Write a sequence for this structure.
């Protein structure tokens, strides 16, 4: 049992900077939770408070059924993988893996058995007698992973473990980590994971649930699909998804959205979800959910097109605002710069945010 | 100039067919300037080393020859200086004095390394009340001239009954008394990322275990320099033993050398010089031995990431 709970967690650094503002998070046993957010949003700070590497200014961290605030990192039942691997430079890989066990004075046979098993799982057996400086980045990260695995902790903590690797290696390590997590879970071992990243691809592909943070606040906690389809606010909407969701500021009046001199009649389906029908709002439509050259809609001027192979990213100009649309390459007929087209949102895929950024188009029934 | 000769040669072979007079003149000018440079370096190097060469040469000369000729190569090499010098004019041989020096250096060097590492670790990695003030006063002692504390220290050690023992010579160092070393290690530690220590804490190590198993190995190159400096300074220290030691039987080498000047009417310079050469040897040997570890330490201590 290794449920992790964070209650009203706060962090004020010694220079009086308040990095974390009373956050609450509940991570179920065996869950893969991703903390994601832009640089400086206090992901690392939060993770380090869970690990015990940073003091807690307020609130509690509960692992299993113990409040661990006052426990040393080694007593919390956690293991951590660092961005820079943090392998002990003077120890061979074998000793790096077994350092924790040797500190606990575990029996020699047990140390050897566990080291061998971890090395087998991570395919680092040929590297056991090398020094960290003799490893490539990917190998070093696997060793770092092994050092966490060998401890059989209740909670795994990862702080941007893949950000020093190149794109290809990152993709394969991503799969390796999620596979490992599934395997541990299937074997009934503790496998709760908190995984910090600023890469939304990692977040979307790896997380059972994702916690989006901004400036020390939690913006939304949800599974990837919900996060994508039903963002709670404009920040999450803009942060998740690539290219970014178009956020077009305008005015709502009845069932039409006014932008400069133009207006767009909103689909009935959207109107049915909407909790208000007037005032300044932001219309949010993902580039993939824009239809180009419909009978009517917003008039837009083509500003450029990027051909990506299977799709085309179209940059458009609507009343001075930059809007991006993604079209399947098959549907794309050459559009010159300066051509005027019309745009309408896919039914069921548009969002409306109020002035404070809250999503006012989430139907409660869904 | 670090271009390997072979590269130069092949480069020359490549350009040879198109060499015109100007580039030939250029190569000649380069050779000329290299010749001048090396001649100058060798001359200056020789001048710097001359006293040392003379010392070694003179230690094999007879006493009269030392003042009779200018050259440093002995005419009739003799080991007299070494034989007689080793016996000394005291009841003890020079071996005794070497042993005494060793008895001072050993605890001093070891305890300096241990205590300075502990104190530097504390300053570099922990937050505690008045840390800034304490560190500032540590640095302030660096600026304090040694002479100022001589007399109070002497009185203190006299009252402790430590006169004519080795204790005053090494005990202060065992409590990180050498602020310079602490400062040096703190600077070195600040440059080492904390990740490894944090990983060790997550692995369950307490502060002391982290220091011993993680920090000290990474600090090794710096600790070896500390030990090396301490070794050389102690070996050469004359004033400390002069003040605190009064019986000849406990004299270290530095004092014993002076002793041979004091006690004989006509100085046997060749004996003094011979013993000086011997006194130089330990420092040289230790330096060349440690140099290897020093360089190795730096390359393995390097942190990747
Ligand atoms: N020791 C410190 N003292 C004061 N402020 C700090 C300290 N460490 C971090 N901060 C501040 O706290 C905030 C959160 O930092 P944190 O390292 O947790 O961000 P992050 O989300 O991990 O960012 P990144 O994605 O760049 O790693 C930042 O604004 C940072 O400037
Ligand atoms: Mg971070």
């Amino acid at each position: 049992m290794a449920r992790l709970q964070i209650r009203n967690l706060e962090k004020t650094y010694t220079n009086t900077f308040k990095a974390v503002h009373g956050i609450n998070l509940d991570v179920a046993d065996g869950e893969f939770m991703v903390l994601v957010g832009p640089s400086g949003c206090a992901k690392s700070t939060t993770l380090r408070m869970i690990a015990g590497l940073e003091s807690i200014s307020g609130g509690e961290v509960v692992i299993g059924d113990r409040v661990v605030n006052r426990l040393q990192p080694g007593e919390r039942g956690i293991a951590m993988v660092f961005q820079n691997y943090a392998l002990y430079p003077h120890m061979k890989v074998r000793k790096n893996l077994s350092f924790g066990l040797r500190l606990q004075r575990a029996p020699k046979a047990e140390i050897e058995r566990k080291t061998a098993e971890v090395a087998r799982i991570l395919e680092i057996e040929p590297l056991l007698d090398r020094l960290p400086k003799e490893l490539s980045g990917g190998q070093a990260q696997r060793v770092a992973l092994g050092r966490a695995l060998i401890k059989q902790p209740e909670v795994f903590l990862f702080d941007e473990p893949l950000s020093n690797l190149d794109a290809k290696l990152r993709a394969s390590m991503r799969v390796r980590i999620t596979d490992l997590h599934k395997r541990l879970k299937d074997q009934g071992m503790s496998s709760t994971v908190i995984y910090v990243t600023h890469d939304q691809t990692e977040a979307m592909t790896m997380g059972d649930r994702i916690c989006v943070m901004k400036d020390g606040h939690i913006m939304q906690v949800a599974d990837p699909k919900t996060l994508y389809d039903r963002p709670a606010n404009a920040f999450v909407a803009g942060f998740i998804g690539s290219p970014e969701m178009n956020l077009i500021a305008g005015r709502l009046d009845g069932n039409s959205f006014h932008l400069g001199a133009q207006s767009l009649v909103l689909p009935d389906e959207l109107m049915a979800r909407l909790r208000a029908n007037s005032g300044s709002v932001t219309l949010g439509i993902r580039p993939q959910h824009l239809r180009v050259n419909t009978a009517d809609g917003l008039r837009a001027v083509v500003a450029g097109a990027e051909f990506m192979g299977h799709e085309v990213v179209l940059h458009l100009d609507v009343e001075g605002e930059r809007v991006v649309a993604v079209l399947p390459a098959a549907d794309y007929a050459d559009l010159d710069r300066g051509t005027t087209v019309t745009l309408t949102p896919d039914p069921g895929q548009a969002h409306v945010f109020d002035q404070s950024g809250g999503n006012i188009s989430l139907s409660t029934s869904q | 100039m670090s271009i390997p000769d072979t590269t130069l040669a092949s480069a020359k072979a490549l350009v040879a067919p198109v060499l015109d007079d100007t580039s030939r003149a250029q190569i000649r000018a380069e050779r000329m300037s290299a010749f001048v440079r090396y001649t100058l370096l060798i001359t200056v190097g020789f001048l710097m080393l001359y006293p040392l060469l003379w010392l070694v040469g003179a230690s094999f000369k007879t006493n009269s020859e030392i003042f009779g000729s200018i050259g440093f190569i002995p005419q009739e090499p003799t080991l007299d200086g070494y034989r007689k010098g080793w016996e000394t004019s005291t009841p003890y041989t020079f071996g005794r004095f070497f042993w005494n020096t060793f008895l001072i250096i050993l605890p001093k060097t070891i305890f300096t390394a241990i205590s300075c590492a502990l104190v530097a670790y504390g300053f570099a990695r922990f937050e505690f009340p008045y840390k800034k003030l304490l560190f500032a006063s540590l640095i302030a002692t660096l600026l304090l001239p040694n002479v100022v504390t001589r007399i109070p220290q002497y009185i203190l050690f006299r009252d402790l009954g430590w006169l004519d023992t080795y204790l005053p010579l090494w005990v202060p160092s065992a409590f990180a008394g050498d602020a310079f070393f602490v400062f040096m290690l703190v600077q070195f530690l600040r440059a080492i990322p904390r990740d490894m220590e944090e990983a060790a804490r997550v692995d369950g190590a307490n502060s002391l275990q982290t220091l011993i198993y993680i920090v000290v190995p990474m600090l090794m190159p710096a600790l070896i320099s500390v030990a090396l400096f301490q070794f050389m300074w102690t070996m050469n220290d004359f004033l400390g033993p002069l003040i605190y030691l009064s019986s000849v039987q406990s004299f270290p080498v530095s004092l014993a050398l002076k002793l041979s000047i004091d006690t004989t009417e006509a100085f046997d310079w060749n004996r003094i010089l011979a013993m000086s050469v011997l006194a130089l040897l330990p420092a040289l040997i230790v330096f060349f031995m440690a140099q290897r570890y020093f360089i190795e330490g730096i390359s393995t201590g390097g942190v990747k990431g």
Summary: The first strand of chain A starts at residue 4 and ends at 12. Chain A has two domains: 4-234, 245-353. The radius of gyration of chain A is 24 Å. Chain A has nine helices and 20 strands.
